[in-house]
Each structure stands twice: as C-alpha cells, then as structure tokens.
Give the backbone structure.
Amino acid sequence: MVPSTEMDLINSYAIVAYVAGPIARFADRLRGDLVPGTGHHAHITVLPPRPLTCDPAEAAEFARQRLSPFEPFEVSGGDVEVFSSTQVIYLSLTSGKCELTQMHDVLNTEFLHHDEEFKYIPHITLGQKLIDNSFDRCLTMARKRWEEFGAHPPLRIETLTVVQQRIDGNWKDLAELELGRVAAVG
C-alpha cells in the first residue's frame, strides 16, 4: 500500500488481496531485505488507505455486497517497475489488472469513497521508504532476484480483506470478503 502524504494513516482502512505461494515468499523475503522490519505481508491493494465515514463493520458489509458479482480470478506477475514520484519499487501485473481495477472502481463509492492522491495501478509493493542513497542498489537487487526467480506462477484471488492501520503502524485484518458470494443477512 502506498500511503498518502496528506492523510494521517492511523485508523485508516484499506482493502487488500493477500498474495500466497512462491510469489508471496519471494515478495516478503525481498521486502525484508530492502526495508528491514517491514511487517506488511505481500498483497495487492484494491482500495488504498482512507478514512471511513461509517462504522468499519458497515463498510465491510457494503464492500461484501459490491464484490458479490466478482468471481475468483488469476493474476500474474510482470516486471519490477518504479513509481517515480514516490520511489516505490513494485511488481507489475500482466493479467488480472482489469478485474482489480473494476473492483477498485466499484468499491471507491459511497461509504468507501475517497479522493485518492494517485491513479490506481494494481501491483505488489516490493520496497518503499528506502534508506537514503539506496534506491538504485535496491532496484537493481529487486530486478536481479525477480529475473532469477524463474517461472512466474499465476496467483488466484478468491478473497479480499478489509484492514485497519493501528497506532503502531501495523495493519489489522477486520473482515474477509469472499468473491462470488453474498452473505445471508438476518
């Protein structure tokens, strides 16, 4: 998740798709090497951090209803790239971008609407807030390791998770949202 420089992220909320399998292990290991102490598990942000205008449980139910038409799908990793304005190193996606963008657009309404600082681009963050003067070295390392990783297995997205940033900077999972299903009410 790329934090907004204008928003206090404490008690902000986001919706993410956690990544599993070999790509998750690759991303988590690389993130730990690039930014020691980072506690975020590999994920694709679907709805970037934002304040809520309602109770978190209400927001989760709103998101659950909005996501019900979306069936599980696969995404594939592309190249290691950079958001130059923030110097965030990320893994681009070659498939699944359309579905992720549609979910973002459907979710960024009503209770969950927020004027976002950056255009939504689905990705897996590999490094951000890098130590001064280490950016070029980190980018080279990330690209080399991704090239050495070999075959890029697809990732299956079946659930999204509503998360909240706590005062210690860590993210707490609040609700899991299964794609393609609407929970019974009552």
Q: What stands out?
A: The chain has one domain: 13-178.
